[in-house]
Amino acid sequence: MFHGKRMGRIGLASAALLLSACGAAAPSAPASQPPASAGQRSSSLASAASKPATQTAAPAQTLPALTIPYTAISVSNAPIWVPIEAGLFKKYGVDAKTEFVSQSPNVTAAMLSGQTPIANEGEDAAINADLAGGDIVIIASGMDKFLFSLFTSPKITSIADLKGKKIGISKIGSTTDFVARLVLSKNKLEPGKDVALVQLGGVPEIMAGLQSGAVEAGVLSPPTAFKAKAAGLKELVNLSQYDVTYYQAPLAAKKSWLADHRALALNVLRGYLAGVATIHRDKKQSEAILAKYTKTRDQTILEGSYQALISALPKVPTPKIDAIQTGLAQSTKRQAKSADPASFIDPSLMNELQQSGFIDSLYR
After folding, report:
1. What region, left, alpha or beta, does residue 164 occupy, with left being phi > 0 and alpha being psi -120 to 50 degrees?
2. Of 318, 314, 324, the residue nearest 350 (C-alpha)
3. Which of 168, 193, 165, 164 is nearest to 180 (CA)?
4. Phi, psi dihedral angles at 87 (to 5 degrees)
5. pLDDT tier for residue 103 given thresholds of 50, 70 and 90
6. Residue 300 and residue 158 share a domain
7. Which residues have a Cβ under 8 Å from the Cβ of 288 and sit 6 or more positions away?
8. How much is the pTM?
């Protein structure tokens, strides 16, 4: 059970841009704060109240409070940002806030230590935690396709040209690391032997590394990908064209917390799903929220990022084992070969809400 410990300051990647980076003047601070620098912000991961909330509109009494962290300045986290800003979690009885904690492995550590029971984090981080004995499960898939591209300097013309070169990633064990390894393995190059993976701390730093020549390639996602194109960098591989199911930023929770707080978890999912519906049905509001969290004002970038988001975000984001199989196949951990993909997901909450007609009601 989550006891409301506060997360200490976690060294953040610069919160410049993954709608993952496009500089613009910072908007006024939202009720749930967009990313700020590590020196400006401290974590405030709150505990869930012991009493479950009802599924109807928020009552007058104090609502159970949760902080749901996200790990990248990327459109992949819109299913958290939108319901926060639109008041949809509160509508279903949860006083939810969010905060930026750079890189999925850091959020996973916070979950395992009891600092927060639920978060948006990369599938690979959840898998690695559970292979090491953790109790994290994915309860909603978020996007089910990659929204990543491998960018290079213009002189690189093929994946083969990367042999002996360096690819920038945020951190070993992060989703950018997973993506780099996937691309290399599909092209018969071995990470660490044929191509070096350089940890640069975050997507803005990967972009800067590419521009400075510190690395010859880097893994980027919208809106940073659009900025990279504008800067003259080359999109060598667009992973959305891969026929691969993968959860870039799923909603994950601790099994032990779900066992004790199922009613609260269902209300969290109600707010989350209402946010997904808003993304699909209200482009103007969604783009405004994307702009706020990514500090992006370029309408062309916002439009492209929004279209990329809705193309990869299912209206019914039930987690499935095929995405987990993708993650296990790329894992370097010995335990991955014998792991049961079904043990990394809990689709029962999504199934309950779908069978009740709740999801359908959001689109009427």
Report:
1. left
2. 318
3. 168
4. 75, 25
5. confident
6. no
7. none
8. 0.77
Q: Which residues contact 134 (CB under 8 A, 6 or more apart)?
A: 108, 111, 112, 126
The reply to whether 20 falls in a domain is no
Structural domains counted in the chain: 2
Distances, alpha carbon 45 to alpha carbons 67, 135, 157, 358, in Å: 5, 19, 45, 28
Q: Who has greater pLDDT, 349 or 50?
A: 349
Average pLDDT, rounded, for the chain:
85
The domain spanning residue 182 has which CATH number?
A: 3.40.190.10
Instruction: With a cut of 80, say whether residue 36 has pLDDT above it.
Output: no
Q: Is there a contact between 318 and 352 (Cβ–Cβ < 8 Å)?
A: no
Q: Is residue 43 part of a domain?
A: no
Higher local confidence (pLDDT), 93 or 240: 93
| 42 falls within a domain | no
Q: 296 and 227 in one domain?
A: no
Query: Which residue range is the domain that position 204 belongs to?
Result: 149-241
The gap from C-alpha 308 to its chain's centroid, in whole angstroms, comes to: 15
Question: Could you read off the pLDDT of 152-177 as tens digits, one per residue?
Answer: 999 999 999 999 999 999 888 788 89
SS3 (DSSP) at 141: coil
192 Cβ partners below 8 Å, 6+ apart? none
Q: Which of 204, 221, 241 is the last residue of a domain?
A: 241
Last residue of a domain, one of 241, 262, 289: 241
Segment 219-242, tens digit of pLDDT: 998 888 888 988 899 999 998 888
- Residue located via tokens 């659009």: 226
DSSP 8-state secondary structure symbol assigned to residue 100: B
Whether residue 135 sits in one domain with residue 258: yes
> Could you say which DSSP state residue 25 is in?
P
